[in-house]
Amino acid sequence: MTSQPPFWERPLASLSRDEWEALCDGCGKCCLHKVEDADSGRIWPTNVACKLLDLKTARCSDYRNRRKFVPDCLRLTPALAEELEWLPETCAYRLRAHGEPLPHWHYLLCGDREAVHWAGASVVGKAISEVIAGPLENHIDWGDEEPLEVERVDVDQPDREE
Fold first, then answer.
1. Is residue 156 domain-resident?
2. Mind listing the pLDDT tens digit for each residue in 56-82?
């Protein structure tokens, strides 16, 4: 008799809804707003959290009813987990969609739901609520890249010929 591997090692398509939901490590990174560059289509992360994200726990404060308050809240599916490039590299959904193992600090492996925070893999202590953040453009995480400088032109002054 062959024993089944733990559900988090099985293909995503074989998981029950409860097993799918249990994959979430509670990092809260998917609940941060993103900004899309209109020219390139590139997605830039911000540190601005959805108004429903509890910044002390990195969990949604009303997960069951979230779409009533945040209509564009994405419902993640196995297909989306494979496609969405903006999902965090440590996201269990992304990792499993690509056949990768869970990180050692994932609660399903270590038994501690707080491990994601101790590992520095969550938004706890790193995010601000959209309620007080102001313009998203002021909160873009450029990573190692610098934002493009824009040449300022005074439109009130005509060009001078010399």
1. no
2. 999 999 999 999 999 999 899 999 999
